[in-house]
């Protein structure tokens, strides 16, 4: 899949000499930051995002909204609105959206899916382009649904990027069917802009499966928090149907939660080394899928405690295999696979066929890279079988996938001599990863 890089291009993944003991402050959630930016841009009044994530995906979202006319100002404050230490913030000033503009989506699912609906509300042409991999990621659900709701889009009949949305300043909206089995982001994308569609939206998912439900809940909760009226299946609505009523959105003052999926490698470090890691500011209640780590890593041998100090995971040094459906929390798969490769019994990870269309084909990439370190992983139709074997050092390729890089770092803690190719790819959601990782190890 990738040529072997020169040794100098490799990041030598630190090997843990003993149990890791650390407190690690994890930056803000990618998924919450990018939803908050979209909702603030569509609001009827200015709003604030405090402790936003600043990473490739969120900076791409911010600059895309800016090119369409939205004001996003950087501010620094040590105390704001009673939130002591809230630190840096973005003030978002909504404006009439306009083209012509070009949006670089990078390889951010949230940008490529959440912004075409926003672009239908702009006056003028908005062109979307991105990394080569973004051309391969599914987008047809958003394109077809927007067309059915009245949008004019030129995608060269590819059903994918690059494309141009010819915004007319408004979209009719109304009833539409979407098969979101390849990405929950199709549903989130349409819901987030729907309060601004003339008739709102009545969205019916027609596919056999629906991944990443917590991320859809996150969209619904965040819409409701800015005043939108949403009916959805989980609170008594019709199965597979979401309805959003048209209406103005409030500008809010929102402090972004830490990214719990990015907390995963640090918690895994405690689990695989028999150490203790605390993640401060772990929310007591959240829609983030990373919260499921408390249950999953407990089943794999850790002990979790949620206190005022945050979430503390303590490992015994023994890691157990797991049989688990990760369909709701697919983005946790690479980290769980890495831990499973170090366990004392086999694992089966299920429900994640759609990971083949993530940043890379994650099922193929994990299989190949773990096996090249001596592991025994096989792909199934919808996941992975992982039989732990003694592993050895070698190159761990990352395929421009941030979660492959952090998975490799977990393996490196237990296996000497793992070199991670292009660790800088972690900048997609966690630019400071190498520093946070070595800091955790006390180096
Ligand atoms: O809406 C979101 O913020 C996300 C939804 C999920 O996408 P899929 O449903 O495509 O897996 C998840 O994997 C991605 O990391 C973030
Ligand atoms: C799948 C992921 O990202 P994206 O938002 O690009 O889909 C991820 O972060 O694991």
TrEMBL record:
The active site is at residue 331. It holds the Pfam family EPSP_synthase. Phosphoenolpyruvate binds at residues 30, 109, 137, 185, 362, 403, 428. The keyword Amino-acid biosynthesis applies. It catalyses: 3-phosphoshikimate + phosphoenolpyruvate = 5-O-(1-carboxyvinyl)-3-phosphoshikimate + phosphate. Pathway: Metabolic intermediate biosynthesis; chorismate biosynthesis; chorismate from D-erythrose 4-phosphate and phosphoenolpyruvate: step 6/7. SUPFAM superfamilies: EPT/RTPC-like. InterPro entries: Enolpyruvate_Tfrase_dom, Enolpyruvate_Tfrase_sf, EPSP_synthase, EPSP_synthase_CS, RNA3'P_cycl/enolpyr_Trfase_a/b. It is found in: Cytoplasm. Monomer. Belongs to the EPSP synthase family. This is 3-phosphoshikimate 1-carboxyvinyltransferase. The lineage of its organism: Bacteria, Bacillati, Actinomycetota, Actinomycetes, Kitasatosporales. The gene is aroA.
């Amino acid at each position: 899949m990738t040529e072997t890089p020169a040794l100098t291009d490799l990041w030598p993944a630190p090997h843990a000499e003993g149990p890791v003991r650390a407190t690690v402050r994890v930056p803000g959630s990618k998924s919450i930051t990018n939803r908050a930016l979209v909702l603030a841009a569509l609001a009827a009044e200015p709003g604030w995002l405090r402790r936003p994530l600043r990473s490739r995906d969120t900076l791409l979202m911010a600059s895309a909204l800016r090119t369409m006319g939205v004001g996003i100002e950087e501010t620094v404050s040590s105390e704001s609105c009673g939130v002591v230490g809230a630190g840096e913030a973005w003030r978002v000033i909504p404006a009439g959206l306009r083209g012509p503009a070009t949006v670089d989506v990078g390889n951010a699912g949230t940008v490529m899916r959440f912004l075409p609906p926003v672009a239908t509300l702009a006056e003028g042409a908005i062109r979307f382009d991105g990394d080569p991999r973004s051309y391969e990621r599914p987008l047809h659900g958003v394109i077809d649904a927007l067309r059915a709701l009245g949008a004019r889009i030129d995608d060269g009949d590819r059903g994918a990027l690059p494309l141009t949305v010819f915004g007319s300043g408004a979209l009719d909206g109304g009833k539409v069917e979407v098969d979101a089995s390849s990405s929950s982001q199709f549903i989130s994308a349409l819901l987030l802009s729907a309060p601004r569609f003339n008739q709102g939206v009545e969205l019916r998912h027609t596919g056999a499966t629906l991944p990443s439900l917590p991320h859809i809940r996150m969209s619904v909760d965040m819409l409701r928090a800015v005043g939108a009226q949403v009916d959805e299946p989980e609170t008594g609505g019709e199965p597979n149907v979401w309805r959003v009523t048209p209406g103005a959105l409030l500008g809010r003052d929102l402090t972004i939660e830490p990214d719990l999926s990015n907390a995963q490698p640090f918690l895994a470090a405690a689990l695989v080394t028999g150490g203790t890691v605390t993640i401060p500011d772990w929310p007591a209640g959240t829609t983030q899928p990373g919260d499921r780590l408390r249950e999953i890593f407990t089943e794999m041998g850790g002990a979790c405690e949620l206190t005022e100090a945050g979430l503390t995971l303590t490992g015994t040094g023994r890691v157990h295999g797991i049989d688990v459906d990760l369909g709701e929390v697919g983005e946790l798969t690479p980290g769980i696979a890495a831990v499973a490769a170090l366990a004392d019994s086999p694992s089966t990870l299920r429900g994640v066929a759609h990971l083949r269309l993530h940043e890379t084909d994650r099922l193929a990439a994990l299989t190949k890279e773990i096996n090249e370190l001596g592991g025994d992983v096989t792909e199934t139709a919808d996941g992975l079988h992982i039989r732990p074997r003694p592993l050895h050092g070698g190159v761990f390729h990352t395929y421009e996938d941030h979660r492959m890089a952090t998975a490799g770092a977990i393996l490196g803690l237990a296996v000497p001599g793992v070199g991670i190719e292009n660790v800088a790819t972690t900048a997609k959601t966690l630019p400071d990863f190498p520093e946070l990782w070595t800091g955790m190890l006390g180096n």
